[in-house]
Write a sequence for this structure.
C-alpha cells in the first residue's frame, strides 16, 4: 500500500509547481505589456521588439501548465478544491497567454506609429494602460493569494476602464474627421485602446477563475456571487 | 458485473451530453454569425437583435460543459482519449463562447451602422463573413466528427482570411483620409471586420483542440508536427 502521506505531499508539490508557473507566466505577461506600452510612449523600438520576442516564452509556459495539469489529474485524481485549482490554473494560463498576445499586437502597432511623426494623443494611452495594468495585477494577486474579497471587487468594478476606453475611442474618431491624412495613426491608437480594454476583460476572467477555485461557484455571465464571510 | 456496466453507461451518457452541448453551441454561434452579418448587410436590425438575444443560451451552455466535464473527471477518472475529449470540450466551449461574443459585437456594430446613411464599403463584409463562416463551420464539424485531416487544413485557410482582412482595413483607412463625413461608419466597419477576423483565429483554436483530442499532440504556438509532417499524425486511443 502506498504511503498516504507521501502521495499527499506529492500532490501538494505538483500543485505548488503549477502555482509557481502561473506566477512566473503572469509576471512575464505584465512585463511584455509594460514593454509594449513604454515602447509606444517613449518611441523605443527596442522595447517593442522585446515585447514581441518575449511572447514565445509565455506561449511555452501555457503549454507547460497544461502538461503539468494533465499529469496531475491523471496521476493523482485530485478532488474538490485540488481539482478546481488545476482546472482554474489551466484557464488562467489561457487568459494570460491572450494578454501577452495583446501586448504583442500593441507592440506591433507601436512600431508603425514610431516610424511616423509623433501624434500628441498617444500620451492619452497612459492612464488607460494604468487602469488595465492595475486590474491585471490585482487579479493575479487574488488568484495567487486566494483573496476572495479582492477577486469579487475586480469582477464588480471594471467600469472605469470600460468608460475611459469608450471616451478615448470617441475622441479619436472625432479627431480623424478633422485630420484625415493622419487617419492611420489614429486607427492604430483606437486598436491599442481596444486591446487594453480586452486585457482588462481577461483580468476579470482571471478573477472569475479565482472565485471558482475558492468557492466552487461559476459566476460567469451574471451567475450569482458567493457571499463573503466578514 | 452489472455494477460496472452501470458505471460505464453513466460515463458514456455524460460524454454524449458533452458532445451534444458542444454541437448545439456550434449551431447557435454559426447562426448568430449569419444573423449578425445579414443584419448588417441588409440593414435589418431585427436580425442583429436576434443574434444578440440568442447569445444567452451559448453562455449557459459554456458553464454547463465545464460542470459536466469536471463531474466526469471526478466521478469516472477517465484516461487517454476520453480524458482528452473532456479537456478539449471544455476548451472548445470557451472558444465557442467567445465566437458568440464576437457575433454579438458584430451585431451591435450592425445596429449602429443601420441607423446612419449606408456606405458602399459595407458590402465587402460579405466576402469576409463567407470565409470566416465556412472556416468556423468546418472546424466545428472536424471537432464533432473527429476528422483529423479537416482539422489540419484549417490553419492554412486562415491565411486567406487574414489577407482579406488586411486589404479591407487598408481600404477603409484610405477612405477615412478623405471622407470625413462618414468616419463613424468606417470605425464601426473596422471593428466589424476585426471581429470576423478573430472568429477565423478561433476556428484555428478549435482545430488545435481537435488535433489534441485525436492525437495527444499540442501543436499550439507553432508546436512541431511529428517528423514527416501531418501525414505521420495518427489518431490514437
Amino acid at each position: 500500500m502506498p504511503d498516504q502521506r507521501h502521495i499527499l505531499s506529492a500532490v501538494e508539490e505538483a500543485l505548488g509547481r503549477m502555482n509557481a508557473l502561473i506566477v512566473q507566466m503572469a509576471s512575464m505577461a505584465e512585463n511584455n505589456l509594460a514593454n509594449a506600452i513604454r515602447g509606444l510612449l517613449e518611441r523605443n523600438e527596442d522595447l517593442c521588439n522585446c515585447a514581441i520576442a518575449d511572447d514565445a516564452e509565455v506561449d511555452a509556459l501555457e503549454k507547460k501548465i497544461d502538461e503539468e495539469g494533465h499529469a496531475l489529474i491523471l496521476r493523482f485524481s485530485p478532488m474538490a478544491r485540488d481539482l478546481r485549482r488545476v482546472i482554474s490554473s489551466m484557464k488562467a494560463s489561457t487568459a494570460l497567454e491572450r494578454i501577452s498576445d495583446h501586448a504583442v499586437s500593441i507592440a506591433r502597432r507601436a512600431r508603425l506609429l514610431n516610424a511616423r511623426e509623433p501624434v500628441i494623443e498617444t500620451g492619452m494611452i497612459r492612464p488607460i494602460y494604468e487602469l488595465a495594468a492595475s486590474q491585471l495585477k490585482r487579479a493575479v494577486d487574488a488568484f495567487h493569494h486566494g483573496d476572495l474579497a479582492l477577486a469579487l471587487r475586480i469582477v464588480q468594478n471594471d467600469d472605469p476602464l470600460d468608460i475611459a476606453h469608450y471616451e478615448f475611442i470617441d475622441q479619436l474618431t472625432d479627431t480623424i474627421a478633422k485630420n484625415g491624412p493622419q487617419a492611420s495613426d489614429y486607427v492604430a491608437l483606437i486598436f491599442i485602446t481596444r486591446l487594453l480594454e480586452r486585457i482588462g476583460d481577461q483580468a476579470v476572467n482571471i478573477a472569475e477563475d479565482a472565485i471558482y477555485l475558492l468557492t466552487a461557484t461559476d459566476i460567469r455571465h451574471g451567475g450569482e456571487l458567493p457571499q463573503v464571510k466578514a | 458485473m452489472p455494477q460496472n456496466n452501470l458505471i460505464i453507461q453513466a460515463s458514456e451518457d455524460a460524454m454524449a451530453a458533452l458532445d451534444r452541448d458542444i454541437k448545439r453551441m456550434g449551431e447557435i454561434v454559426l447562426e448568430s454569425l449569419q444573423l449578425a452579418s445579414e443584419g448588417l448587410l441588409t440593414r435589418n436590425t431585427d436580425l442583429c437583435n436576434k443574434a444578440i438575444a440568442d447569445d444567452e443560451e451559448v453562455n449557459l451552455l459554456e458553464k454547463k460543459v465545464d460542470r459536466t466535464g469536471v463531474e466526469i473527471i471526478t466521478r469516472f477518472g477517465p484516461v487517454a482519449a476520453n480524458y482528452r475529449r473532456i479537456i478539449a470540450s471544455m476548451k472548445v466551449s470557451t472558444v465557442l463562447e467567445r465566437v458568440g461574443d464576437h457575433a454579438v459585437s458584430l451585431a451591435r456594430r450592425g445596429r449602429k451602422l443601420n441607423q446612419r446613411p449606408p456606405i458602399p464599403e459595407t458590402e465587402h463584409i460579405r466576402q469576409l463573413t463567407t470565409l470566416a463562416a465556412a472556416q468556423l463551420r468546418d472546424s466545428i464539424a472536424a471537432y464533432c466528427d473527429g476528422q483529423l485531416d479537416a482539422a489540419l487544413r484549417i490553419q492554412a485557410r486562415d491565411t486567406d482570411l487574414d489577407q482579406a482582412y488586411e486589404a479591407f482595413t487598408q481600404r477603409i483607412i484610405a477612405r477615412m483620409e478623405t471622407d470625413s463625413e462618414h468616419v463613424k461608419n468606417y470605425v464601426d466597419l473596422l471593428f466589424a471586420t476585426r471581429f470576423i477576423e478573430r472568429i477565423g483565429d478561433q476556428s484555428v483554436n478549435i482545430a488545435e483542440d481537435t488535433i489534441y483530442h485525436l492525437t495527444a499532440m499540442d501543436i499550439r504556438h507553432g508546436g512541431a508536427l511529428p517528423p514527416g509532417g501531418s501525414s505521420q499524425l495518427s489518431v490514437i486511443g
Q: What stands out?
A: Residues 2-221 of chain B form a domain with the Methane Monooxygenase Hydroxylase; Chain G, domain 1 fold (CATH 1.20.58.220). The first helix of chain B runs from residue 2 to 41. Helices of chain B lie at 2-41, 45-76, 80-114, 125-145, 148-178, 183-215. Chain B has one domain: 2-221.
